[in-house]
Write a structure and sequence with these properties.
By secondary structure, this protein is of the alpha/beta class. 25% of the residues lie in helices and 27% in strands. The radius of gyration is 17 Å and the shape is globular. The chain starts with a strand and ends in an 8-residue tail after the last helix.
Length: 244
């Protein structure tokens, strides 16, 4: 599994995990993220059950298990959080932040020791050692209860399925040409994003953020000027049209 540091400033860093060449056929590739601040660490959308062993091995190269104090699940999908039952056994003291709407669903993945911290619809902010992380509402993009994570110090937005593209593990890590990349995102966004109103509301709020990196859960990451180019493209894209 590839581990790439995408931001580092002293003891504050972001690491992206993914592009696993050993993943099973028929399973989509996913990006997992780790934010570390001092002796506290949060894993964002830590992945499916099939990824637990390589993900744990990769994470422990950077931090010991006792410093993984927080988990985040943007929504209820199995590629996001079906590994929860195994993390529950591996982590001695952690909290899971996830939408209130999905608590009774996510608990089916197994959770005895980890504490469920329900995120209200309007979002919330948590402190991770010295930094503030904002859980940014992204409802109906694509899940009816859904959040993204914004780090105002690093100026990184973990954008879940917004900006996602399903590509091979050999694809580049960064978007380098929107004209070439947009066709790889189009069908995914039109099928999985059901609401133009929700999309436009998200774009309006995202434009108010300072974003140096937009980091989706699948596919390539975006840096300026491609962050703005993506927002422009997404804003005009008709979504929720698969049944028409």
């Amino acid at each position: 599994m590839l581990a790439t540091t995408i931001y580092e400033d002293g003891d504050h860093r972001w690491i992206m995990f993914g592009r696993d060449p050993d993943k099973a056929d028929g399973i989509i590739d996913t990006n997992q993220y780790m934010i570390q601040s001092g002796n506290q660490t949060i894993l964002l959308d830590p992945g499916g059950i099939e990824l637990f062993a390589p993900m744990l091995s990769a994470v422990l190269k950077f931090v010991p298990a006792e410093q993984i104090t927080h988990l985040f699940a943007s929504h209820q999908d199995p590629d996001i959080i079906s590994s929860l039952g195994l993390w529950d056994q591996a982590l001695p003291n952690a909290k899971l932040y996830s939408p209130w709407l999905w608590e009774s669903f996510i608990r089916h993945f197994g959770m005895e020791r980890i504490e469920y911290c329900a995120i209200p619809d309007e979002g919330m902010t948590i402190t991770l050692n010295k930094i503030q992380l904002q859980f940014f509402p992204a409802h109906y993009l694509h899940s009816s209860g859904n959040f993204h994570v914004y780090d105002p110090k690093a100026r990184i937005l973990m954008s879940g399925d917004v900006g996602a593209a399903l590509e091979s593990v050999e694809a580049p890590l960064w978007v380098d040409n929107m004209a070439n990349h947009a066709p790889k995102m189009k069908k995914f966004h039109q099928r999985w994003m059901p609401s133009d109103d929700a999309k436009l509301d998200w774009v309006r709020r995202a434009r108010n953020l300072e974003i140096d990196i937009m980091a989706p859960q699948h596919g390539r990451l975006f840096k300026p000027p491609f962050v703005t180019e993506f927002l422009d493209w997404f804003e005009q894209l008709p979504v929720g049209i698969a049944v028409k």
